[in-house]
Amino acid sequence: MAAKPRSRTGIDDVTLVPVSPSEQKRRRIRNAIILLVLAVLLFAGGLWLGAGGALDASEHNQRLRNQVHELQEELDKARNQLAVYRTDAQVNKQAGEQVRDQLKTLRDQVAELEEAVAFYKNVMAPGDQETGLRIEKMDVQPDGSGDGYTYKLVLVQAGDNRNRRYLSGDVTLRLVGSTADGKPVSYTGSQWLDDESETRFQFRYFQELSGHFRVPEGVAVKAIDVEAETSGRQRSRAEKTLKWQ
Q1: From which residue to which does any coiled coil extend (predicted)?
Q2: d(CA 69, CA 62)
Q3: Distances (CA, A) of 195 to 149, 198, 212
């Protein structure tokens, strides 16, 4: 018995349809158009996403710039306030220093005026128990040169104003000290006073004498002895010792 031939399923059922060249061309064109559209869509989407990100970054940067601008304005205001505060503090400090200087000057002036009033009252007061020539004041101050000094000597005539006469005479200034080896020394006016120093007086109520001197080298000063003596028939003399400090 002869075998019955089997049918080839999947092959015999396939029907081949011929495709014309024009149809193949249209398909290729359609596929190319689809790919081109997809590419354009992808490119446009990328641009949109990129533009959106750039826009967000630009807005963020603008906000940051605004914040920086606001902080800069606040910093400028703080600097201005600090400058005003420093100026006010400096002005107040200078004003306080000026007030203190003025008060000190006024106190010094008041002290000088009180001293002057006491001096004139002492000189002009009638009926003073002490009469005649008197050394009222002897003051010595350094001149800033190291070994140079200036002096001021005030002489007065005490007593009743009605009996006061003109007094004239000379003042002797004597420098007393010691040398480095302890030897005592004494210098008279011509040996240590400058030539311009005043030692001659003539007055009725009072007179101020001034001068300049230098301490001899190697001498430690202990005191300055002052002696004023009038000339004429009615002589009077006054003495005073200024301790050296």
Answers
A1: 54-123
A2: 10
A3: 14, 8, 9
Helices (H), 125-244: 189-192
Q: Please say if the pLDDT value at position 146 is more than 60.
A: yes
pTM over 0.70: no
End-to-end CA distance of the chain: 165
SS3 content of the chain, % helix, strand, coil (to 5): 45, 30, 25
CB atoms near residue 63 (< 10 Å): 10
Phi, psi of 38 (to 5 degrees): -60, -40
Pairing mode, strands 237-243 and 220-230 = antiparallel
Q: Indicate whether 104 pLDDT > 50.
A: yes
> What does residue 8 show for φ and ψ, rounded to 5 degrees?
-95, 95
Lowest mean pLDDT among 3-12, 84-93, 160-169: 3-12
Q: Alpha helices, DSSP H only, in the chain?
A: 21-124, 189-192
What residue spans of 125-227 are helical by DSSP H?
Answer: 189-192
Instruction: Identify residue 207 by its one-letter amino acid code.
Output: Q
